Amino acid sequence: MKTLDFLHRWTGGLIGLVLALLGLSGAILVHKDAWVMLPHAGDALAAETETVAATVTRLMADPAARPQSINFASETFGLHRLSLGKDAGAYADQAGNVVATWQSQWERPEIWLFDFHHHLFAGDTGETVAGIAGIAGLFFVLSGIILWWRTRKTFEFRLWPRRMSRPAIVRQHRDLGIIVAPLLLLSLYTGLTMIFRPMTMLVLGPSAPSAIGAGLKPPPPLKAELADTIDWAAIVRQARQRFPDAQFRILSLPRGDSGLISLRMKQPAEWLPNGRTTLYFAADSGRLVAARDALALPATVRGFNMLFPLHAAKVGGLPWRLVMTVSGLALALLGSLAVWSFWFRRNRPMPARRPATAN
């Protein structure tokens, strides 16, 4: 038990601040659609086929200025987000009128905050570091439950330490941690599955990583160059005809030498905010090459598609957003106070008393 306590304290002191910042940024991002203040951001979703077809045609009309991708407006955010290459981008209303542009992610707080939460501003390396921090977070929660058990009779619920002394901080940390432990396990684990696919084996079974990879694999590449003129309206109409109840979510130009235009859609039964129902079109002609129905995927893949919506509170409405906000804020509080108490509030040894001298 002493070894476990030692590991819990030292790893918390070393990595607690990273977890605290991830928790705080996650709690803020859960409500992103509500705090991004731009013209038409609150517009109702215009999901009619011809409306979307006309907007896509307008946005993609100029081959020299067409976006790399369009993230379509949703029921909670009324603007399309356009990716213009590298860090540049724009927001456009649902008629195709640009309302905001940027050349760097630092011009848009929701974008750099997302990059920090997912990549720590360091790309794939930062994502790996965040994943390692998440694994450490799981260890903290599980070891904390074990360590709490021996002091369970002294449990007292406090959102904030009684005083900013190390014993008071440790007690508040221990007792608050046991309350939010289920939420932390959920948020940490679901986040880890997005970074380390093998983590899915813990819930979805040993064959999960290979099944997920096979289920989400795109069609083979085509030897097709992106044409200057494509009937974008026809692509939109074909997609709606194939999946009449689905929402348009992401239209992407070919990546690398794939030769495929992809269009992601979200069917009503899907939890994933951008859906996994995907259609692929030849980049030179716009002909439909393949279509993937997310609801027909194997159960393991459908289970995997439910993990991110739980993590990012994209399901369950406001009640679940508030639950995950509590999880993020609790992680921020526990992590920051753990670092504070470990590095700055360690108990100082009492000065030794001098032996009395005879008069």
From TrEMBL:
Q: Which keywords label this protein?
A: Membrane, Transmembrane, Transmembrane helix
What InterPro entries does the record point to?
PepSY-ass_TM
Query: Which ranges does the record mark as transmembrane?
Result: 12-30, 129-149, 176-196, 322-344
- Name of the featured protein: PepSY domain-containing protein
